[in-house]
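Checklist before submission:
- one chain only
- standard amino acids only
- sequence pasted in full

Submission:
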Amino acid sequence: MLAEGLDTAAVIRRLESVCRQETPLRQDHRDPNTYLKFEGGGMIYGHKFRSAAYLLIKALSAGQRVSHVADRSSGSWAMGLAWAARVAGATSSFVTVGDPHPYIRQFVESVGGCFHVVDNNAARLAKLDELRSSGIWVPDQHNNVAVIEAFEKSLGPELARQFREHQLAPDYLVAPVGTGGLLAGCARYLRAHGAKLTTVGVDLSSSLVHEGTRHFKYPHAKVRGVGSDDEYCETLITSREQIDRIVPQSPFQAWKEMLALVQEFPCSVGMSGGLALAAASQLRREVGPDKKIVVILPDRGETYAEELRAARLVFGRAPLRFQEGA
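Returned file contents:
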């Protein structure tokens, strides 16, 4: 159900255009058998815009009222869902522990969204329940397995097309795990269409995802999205059916990869992308030079300027690995 005066079919078409937004797959100059999928390299900021648009399409198709939407997020999910809500003529609210990054806050507010900042995760869940009980639509990406379907129906077919264009049959597909939907959805589609690949999920070395104990005290150790302080979620539990291996990486490894990438390509990625690049480097050392690896880089890096600055200070004088003699 849409705001008065809006045409449901037209809104769905616009949302579908985001689900179909093609982003580039590029060969890594440093390693000819590694390919990088830049989800932040198109008109959309990143992969969360695809899943937000898809879930809203499902809600509208089912007759769900969406005059106001809400979820828990301080990252690109908030941006994607706030934009999708705006297309449907709806407002949006996001519950977060601590202030969101200024870039994210400004984007969300520019499309009619707002943030509710609370002190801890228990308060966040309670606030979200309050919003849900008032009739607000809450897609809840953490416990909504349709997130997996979103990537199975959008990014999965796109990757398959691009693999054919590059005459590429990857041996490994690497991506940050987060809720798991991105990697699981892509893997489900590709495997259903004949791909024989190993999936590698990546997360912080201190994350709940691989049952580690969070011990980093430095503030940059917390990653928005990957490495959440959250409880286990149903989406991740279901996604594990498609994830063969979890490879933990440290924030400092991610910084180094973020710096190397921004000096090779005219774009940046966030720390989740840096973690994925670090895992791909580790995997390459394990499997040798001939195996083909595809790395999904979820979104752009506008909110990670401080991390890039720190990486420049720490690693800036070291030769980059794609330079001659590195």
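Reviewer check: Residues 271-287 form the longest helix (17 residues).
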